[in-house]
Amino acid sequence: RITCPLQKPWIAQQKTVGVNFIGGYSALVSKGMTPAEELLIRSIPRALAETERVCSSVNVGSTKTGINMDAVKLMGEIVLETAKATKEQDSLGCAKLVVFCNAPDDNPFMAGAFHGVTEADAVINVGVSGPGVVKTALEKVRGKDFETLCEMIKRTAFKVTRVGQLVAQEASKRLGVPFGIVDLSLAPTPAIGDSVAEILEEIGLERVGAPGTTAALALLNDQVKKGGVMASTAVGGLSGAFIPVSEDQGMIDAVNAGALTLEKLEAMTCVCSVGLDMIAIPGDTKASTISGLIADEAAIGMINQKTTAVRVIPVIGKGVGETVEFGGLLGYAPIMPVSAFS
User: Fold this and answer.
1) DSSP 20-34
2) Could you report the per-residue pLDDT of 99-147, keeping only the tens digit for each?
3) Residue 111: is the preceding peptide bond cis (ω within 30°)?
4) Is the Cβ–Cβ distance between 132 and 328 less than 8 Å?
5) How would you classify the pairing of strands 276-282 and 22-28?
6) InterPro entries from the xrefs (predicted)?
7) What pLDDT band is residue 1 in, cutting at 50, 70 and 90?
8) How many domains are there within the chain?
9) Would strands 66-67 and 61-62 be described as parallel, antiparallel, or unpaired?
10) Does 167 map to a domain?
11) 7-16, 50-59, 106-115, 199-208: which range is least confident on average?
12) Dist CA 342 CA 292 (whole Å)
């Protein structure tokens, strides 16, 4: 029997102080697994089923060490077990579980945030989002050339990052905790207008998923990083654009329109901040298929020296064409088809 090491009294206190999620139920196994790390990984389904706010992440590969394929196989099984353990909540536990390659030590964004081994005992790392701000700015230069477009993205990223820097410094001062980094990641929310997909369409796409989508995303990511790095003394984490399906209304619309597929999303992960994120798949998807998705993303990250990740939700009891509602910051998603082969 796997014992879950989480104690519920301190878990309950998170709600009292207004914490949405807490990360760090994590393992770094890119080169190998200790018995303790394997036990922790095998306890993930129960940990996520018995808690509301705890998030988990596992790093299975890196550019330096390669990919731990034993961990990849195990994580496919763990994702499916987590789905089954939380099937009464539409497999919600999988929305709090991320499998990484090249996981950064200073990522402040849930569900993949954890306190890295290279960090000080306490540090404040701040995540700054704002896709809605970028989209509004681009509306002002609609129809202009690429140079004008890129300059507007950089200027907007600079302003947003600068605000994040000031907030982080003030929090550091009040709490007496050192400031770490600002992570400027365009992370969408379910709110209307707060969409990365809509930014890409403002750049010129008819619909996200159309030919040219990967190029538009690369342009956005590049300009966000160039603008943000000038605005802070320390930019870190992921710092780019996220493409989660359930948390982005524009992505959801593109899936429903038949413009955006799992394969196209995988291609987009070559140039975005993370990977296959918040994607609902059929509940009868095999563990070996999920392991294959993880292996593909890990290969992209390892070869291209970038962070990649997989956060897929096999929704037990539901299939392609149905919709699953996660609620809150996690949004809702149409269940997307995945290859029947593994």
Assistant:
1) --EEEEEEE-SS---
2) 999 988 888 888 777 887 887 788 888 887 778 888 888 888 888 888 8
3) yes
4) no
5) unpaired
6) UPF0210 (IPR007841)
7) very low
8) 1
9) antiparallel
10) yes
11) 7-16
12) 7
Handedness of CA 246, 250, 254, 257 (dihedral sign): positive
CATH of the domain at 25: 3.20.70.20
3 state DSSP class of 62:
strand
Can you tell me whether residue 250 is helix, strand or coil?
helix
CA distance 231 to 82: 40
Instruction: Measure Cα distances from 201 to 10, 197, 235 in Å.
Output: 44, 6, 27
DSSP letters spanning 263-275: HHHHHHTTTSSS-
Average pLDDT over residues 305-327: 90
**37, two tokens:** 């790390």
Q: Going by C-beta distance under 8 Å and a sequence separation of 6 or more, which residues neighbour residue 34?
A: none
- Rounded to a whole number, what is the largest CA-CA distance in the chain? 62
Structure confidence at residue 214 (pLDDT): 93
Phi, psi of 178 (to 5 degrees): -60, 145
Amino acid (one-letter) located at 275: G
Structural domain includes residue 2:
no
Whether 340 is covered by a domain: the verdict is no
Is the residue at 164 inside a domain? Answer: yes
Give me the DSSP letters along 298-316.
Answer: HHHHHHHTS-EEEEEEEET
pTM: 0.88
Count CB-CB contacts under 10 A for residue 319.
Answer: 13
